[in-house]
């Protein structure tokens, strides 16, 4: 769902308690169940919630993403998602080696983002 606020607004949204949800700010700021949301973070809600309070500040644009949780735990690190530490390590190496998996942006003239070192051990989340 793409939410845009012409003026500051506070409301409640009904949720499917079997789903997990994520909120991402594309522009401006918002509060999701009193958690600040801005362009530098994401608010993730675990399954079980039936509704949430959302406050969009004037000019904000927020994406609401959601669906059934993954059946197995996943790892999130930097720009990568995987099911194992080895998958993340492989994705990092592919990024460093400019594998075609990640495509290119022909009109971009800046330096390529450098992937940081992979932590020794990652914690899986559901």
Report what the structure shows:
- The chain is mostly beta strands and 126 residues long.
- The protein is 10% helix and 37% strand.
- The chain has one helix at residues 85-96, and strands at residues 2-4, 9-14, 20-27, 30-32, 35-37, 42-45, 51-56, 61-67, 75-77, 80-82.
- The strands form 3 sheets. Strands 1-8-3-6 form a 4-stranded antiparallel β-sheet, with no helix packed on it.
- A hairpin with a 2-residue loop joins strand 4 and strand 5.
- The chain is globular.
- The chain starts with a strand and ends in a 30-residue tail after the last helix.
- The mean pLDDT is 91.
Roughly how many Å apart are the termini? 22 Å
Q: Strand count, sense and closure of the main sheet?
A: 4 strands, antiparallel
Structural class: mainly beta
* Strand residues, percent: 35-45%
Mean pLDDT reading = 91
Compute the gyration radius: what is it?
17 Å
Low-confidence stretches: none
Fraction of residues in helices?
Answer: under 10%
């Amino acid at each position: 769902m793409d939410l845009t606020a012409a003026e500051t607004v506070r409301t409640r949204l009904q949720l499917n308690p079997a789903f997990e949800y994520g909120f991402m700010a594309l522009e401006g700021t918002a509060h999701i169940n009193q958690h600040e949301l801005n362009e530098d973070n994401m608010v993730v809600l675990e399954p079980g919630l039936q509704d949430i309070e959302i406050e969009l500040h004037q000019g904000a644009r927020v994406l609401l993403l959601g669906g059934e949780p993954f059946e197995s735990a996943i790892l999130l690190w930097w720009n990568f998602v995987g099911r194992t530490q080895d998958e993340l390590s492989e994705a990092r190496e592919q990024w460093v080696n400019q594998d075609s998996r990640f495509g290119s942006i022909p009109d971009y003239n800046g330096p390529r983002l450098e992937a940081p070192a992979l932590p020794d051990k990652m914690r899986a989340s559901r």
